[in-house]
Amino acid sequence: MTNGFRALPSVERLLAQAPIQELARAYSHGALVGLIREELQGQRRAIAQGMATPTLDALVECIRQRAAAAWEAFPQPVVNATGVILHTNLGRAPLSKAAIRVVALAAQGYTNLEYDLEQGERGSRQAHLNTLLRQVTGAEAGIAVNNNASAVMLGLAAIAAGKEVIVSRGEAVEIGGGFRIPEVLAQSGAKLVEVGATNRTYIADYEAVVTENTGALLKVHASNFRVVGFTYAPKTEELVELGRRRGVPVLHDLGSGCLLDTARFGLAHEPMPQESINAGVDLAFFSGDKLLGGPQAGIIVGRGELVQRLGRHPLARAVRLDKLSLAALAATLVHYLKEEATMEIPCWRMINLPLPLLLRRARHWQRAFGPGASVLRGESTVGAGSLPGETLPTWLVALDPGGREGGADALAARLRAGRPPVIARIQDDRVVLDPRTVRAEEEREMVRVVREAL
Ligand SMILES: *Cc1c(COP(=O)(O)O)cnc(C)c1O
C-alpha cells in the first residue's frame, strides 16, 4: 500500500506533463495545484482501499476531466428526452424566445430597472410587474420574489408572525427539496394549528379553532401527490366566507402558476390563480417556473393593502427577485396578455404538441438511429409537482441495448456522457426517448450522440 502511494507522481512531475501545461496556461497556478492535490488525495484513498496505482497518463486524464467538470461552463445544456416537461433536475421551464431576448439585454447593459425615465429619479422594480400581474390574474396587486418558497415565507412572516395559522391536516405537506409547510410556518414565526383528518377536513373544523389569536387560514395545493377515495376539503369560497366573517385573511399556496385551463389539453384541471382571486382569497402564491413557463420566481397576488405590507417587510429585500428573472417574468406574462402562450411559451407548446407530429418525429428518429430502434406508444408527464398521476399520450423511440454489457443502464450512461448529454428514460430494460421535450434544433446533435452510443 505504501508502495502504491510512493508510485504516485509528485505535483511537480504532473505539472510538467503537456496536457497539464495546457491547463496551466488557462488557469491560475494556485487553482491548478489545488486541483492536482485533490486528485492525488482521492487516489491515495482509493489505493488505501486496495485499488491499483493509476498510470501517469491515466492520472493526467483524471486531472483534465476534473478541471473540465469544475471549470467549464456550468450549467451545460442537455437534451431532455425524458418526456418530463418541467423537469426539476434539468432546470424546470425553458424560457420563450422573447424572454431570452430581454434577459440578454438586461444582462449586457444598464436598464431602467429602478429608474423612472419620466421623472429622472428612483423608480420601483416592482411597479411594472404589479401592472402585468393585475392584468393576468385580476388581482388588486402583485409582487414577485425569488421563488415560491420565499413568497410563502414572506407572506406568513408579514401577516401572521406571532399568531396562529390554521392548516388542514391533509395540506401540511412536503413539496420536495426541503419545503415542508410545518417547517416554513415555524421559520416565519407563525404557529401551525392543524385541523381535520388527513383525508377529510370540513369548514367547521377550521371554524372551531378560530380565535382572536388566528393570523391566517392557509390553503395549500398538495401539488405532488393525490389523495383519492374518501376525501373532502372545503371549497375556497367557504374558507373565504369564514375568513371574512371572522376577520381573518385567507392565504392560498397554489404551487404552480397555471394561468391556462389544463383541461383544454386533456389533463385534469390544475387550480389557477385567477380562480383563487375570483373566489376572494386575500393572497395567492405561486411559482414562476412551473406551469407559468417563466424564470424561477415566487409570485404573490391579492389585496392591495396586504401586498403592500409584504413589500415593506424586511424579508422582502432578502428574497428580492434579480433583474434577469424579473425581465424574463415580465416577458412571459405578456405572452398571456397577447393570448399566444401555447405558441410562444415552451412548456405550453410541448403540452399542446399534436400526436401525429410526435409520431412523425419518432419515426424520423427511428430511421436515423438505425436497427435496434423501434417506435411505441407511451406517456409524457408535466413534472415539477404539477398534475401528479396525469399523463399526455405520446410516441417514444425505444433503443434496444442488445446483448451489450450493462444493458439499458450502460446505454443510458453512454447517452449522458455524450456531447451534448442526452437524458433518457429506462422502460422495460430499454432506453426510451420522447420527442415531446426535445426541440427541433437539438435533433441533429441528439441523433449523432445516440448513434455513437449505439
Ligand atoms: C413547488 C411548490 C412550492 C415551492 O415553490 P418554488 O418556486 O419551487 O420555491 C411551494 N408550495 C407549493 C404548493 C408548491 O407546489
Mean pLDDT: 94
Number of domain units: 3
Q: Give the bound compounds.
A: pyridoxal-5'-phosphate
Number of helices: 20
Integer-rounded radius of gyration = 26 Å
CATH topology of the largest domain: Aspartate Aminotransferase, domain 2
**Which bin fits the share of residues in helices?**
40-55%
Q: What about the largest sheet?
A: 7 strands, mixed
Number of strands: 18
Structural class: alpha/beta
Residues in β-strands, percent: 15-25%
How would you sum up the global shape? globular
What does this structure look like?
By secondary structure, the chain is of the alpha/beta class. The chain has 3 domains: 2-70, no CATH class; 79-89 and 347-453, Aspartate Aminotransferase, domain 1; 95-344, Aspartate Aminotransferase, domain 2 (3-Layer(aba) Sandwich). It is built from 20 helices and 18 strands. The strands form 5 sheets. It has a 7-stranded mixed β-sheet, sandwiched between helices. A 5-stranded mixed β-sheet has the order 2-14-15-18-17. The model has no long low-confidence stretch (mean pLDDT 94). It binds pyridoxal-5'-phosphate (PLP).
Fold blueprint:
Layout: H1 2-7, H2 11-15, H3 18-26, H4 29-48, H5 56-71, E1 79-80, E2 84-86, H6 97-108, E3 115-116, E4 121-122, H7 127-137, E5 141-145, H8 148-160, E6 164-168, E7 174-176, E8 179-180, H9 181-188, E9 191-195, H10 203-209, E10 214-220, H11 236-246, E11 250-255, H12 273-279, E12 283-287, E13 298-302, H13 304-312, H14 314-318, H15 323-337, H16 341-344, H17 346-351, H18 355-369, E14 373-383, E15 386-399, H19 407-416, E16 422-423, E17 425-427, E18 430-433, H20 443-453
Parallel strand pairs: 1-16, 2-14, 6-9, 6-10, 10-11, 11-12
Antiparallel strand pairs: 3-4, 5-13, 7-8, 12-13, 14-15, 15-18, 17-18
Helix pairs in contact: 4-5, 6-15, 7-15, 8-9
The chain binds pyridoxal-5'-phosphate.
Residues 147-149, 152, 175, 179, 220-221, 223, 253, 255, 287, 298, 385 line the site of pyridoxal-5'-phosphate.
